[in-house]
Design goal:
This protein is of the alpha/beta class. The protein is built from 4 helices and 5 strands. Helix content is 29%, strand content 21%. It has a 5-stranded parallel β-sheet with strand order 3-2-1-4-5, with helices on both faces.
């Protein structure tokens, strides 16, 4: 049985990697319906190697493919333009799934919900997924050409 009716998770989800997949799997494990806030192209302009971030439509399509392959059906993907996204608009959200690294984002969301007179979300934190280099798997390292989406070092010739 699921622990929550409605769960939210957010991100850029550029070059879906093991860390993203762990985050998403946890959200589907604990929630009946998963709301995914997918960052707009405008929102990612200041990220490392921003010029290499896949366009919104491609990131959206990659998410949908991942959900189909894993049999995840009860979800809504919503484009977001800031860190709060739609979390103050959907009053019935119950939990937010974040990584250790993005925990502060959950605190910002909860502060915005409280300011809007809404109940704060329960924060579910998953551990960082490490690459074979010992660092966390991140889209930035993948865009930099240092690791692949599975955390393996990329060989340079």
């Amino acid at each position: 049985m699921k622990k929550f009716k409605k769960v939210v998770v957010g991100g850029t989800f550029d070059r879906l990697h093991l860390g993203h997949k762990a985050l998403l799997r946890k959200a589907f494990e604990i929630g009946d319906i998963v709301y995914i806030g997918l960052t707009s192209d405008e929102m990612v302009k200041d990220k490392p190697y921003a010029e290499k971030i896949l366009p919104y439509e491609r990131r959206l399509s990659d998410l949908i493919k991942f959900f189909e392959v894993n049999g995840f059906r009860n979800y809504r993907i919503i484009k977001i333009h800031n860190a709060i996204g739609f979390t103050t608009k959907i009053k019935s959200l119950e939990a937010i799934v974040v990584s250790e690294e993005t925990y502060k984002g959950a605190l910002i969301v909860n502060r915005a919900r409280e300011e809007a007179g809404l109940k704060p979300l329960e924060i579910i934190v998953i551990p960082i997924v490490k690459s074979k280099l010992g660092e966390k798997i991140s889209s930035s390292l993948i865009r930099a050409g240092l690791i692949d989406p599975f955390g393996n070092p990329v060989r340079r010739e």
